Amino acid sequence: MQGLTIPESLENAYDSGVKKIIQIGIDEERNKIAKEISKLESKIDLFYTAGCHPADSIPTDSQDRIQSFIQDNSNDPKFIGIGEIGLDYYHDKDNHQFQKETFRRFLEIASELNYPVIIHSRDAAEDTYQILKEFKEKVFGVIHCFTYDSEYAKKFYDIGYYISFSGVVAFKNATSIQEAVVSLPLDGILVETDAPFLSPPPHRGKRNEPAYVSYVLKKVLELRTESRDKVSETIFANSLKLINREPLHA
Question: What pLDDT digit, counting tens, does each position of 183-216 carry?
């Protein structure tokens, strides 16, 4: 099934109540595309990041160019973070050391430029945590598309990371992720889509859209005990802190 055009997708997102979108970069080409999207005319405030995705084992010369792109755009008000960066032992089972070196390289850049990081971590919870802990109080950011348990959610939160939940939280078998939503302090929670992937029910298996973040929020509202207004307002405030490059534990 063919997806919507970007303007159609943005219009749908606006109609569903979305006010701000961060377009994530993951490699040389898509970092540039993310920047282009952020410049589109839209009723929604658009921002972008630039990253070096761990699953792709991006060569050093390409990493050099990504670093230059980050530095060249570091004064762009639309540029709000570095990532996706991180570790992925699911898609890339052999190059763990190379991934770790790359991860540390971009964390150093984030520390130098004082930008938050967007962390991709799959089947690599402990290594991700240990490396981020090396940079505690130097780097902060968000664990994107969180898929671990409540124990790791709290560990990442304690060293300065928002925990961002995607459509996976609404899957019936996602009990450990749902427990993380319940156990975390509210000021550490974000919601996202990871579009075009991981559509929440009732759209599971179909192309994801930014508008569907409303279903993720709905599930979080069901799980939390605070009032709907308090949860919604706090999560939105958390997103503004990230966009404004304010540390979680400021």
Answer: 999 999 999 999 999 999 999 999 999 999 999 9
Q: What is the DSSP string of 115-141?
A: --EEEEEES-HHHHHHHHHHTTTT--E
What token pair was written down for 22?
Answer: 């961060």
Task: Characterize 99-108 residue by residue with b for buried, 16 or more Cβ atoms within 10 angstroms of its Cβ, and e for exposed.
Answer: bbebbebbbe
Write the CA distances from 51 to 42, 93, 95, 114, 191, integer angstroms: 24, 20, 18, 15, 20
Whole-number Å distance between alpha carbons of 107 and 131: 9
> What is the strand order of the sheet 79-88 is part of?
20-23, 45-50, 79-88, 117-122, 141-143, 161-165, 189-191
The DSSP bridge pattern shows strands 161-165 and 117-122 to be unpaired
8 Å CB contact between 122 and 89: yes
The tokens describing 90, both together, are 């699911």
Instruction: Count CB-CB contacts under 10 A for residue 63.
Output: 17
Sign (positive or negative) of CA dihedral 117, 123, 128, 129? positive
pTM of the model: 0.96
What is the number of other CB atoms lying within 10 angstroms of the CB of residue 137?
10
Check whether 2 has a pLDDT greater than 80: no
% residues pLDDT > 70 (the chain): 99
The 3-class SS string of 79-111 reads EEEEEEEEEECCCCCCCHHHHHHHHHHHHHHHH
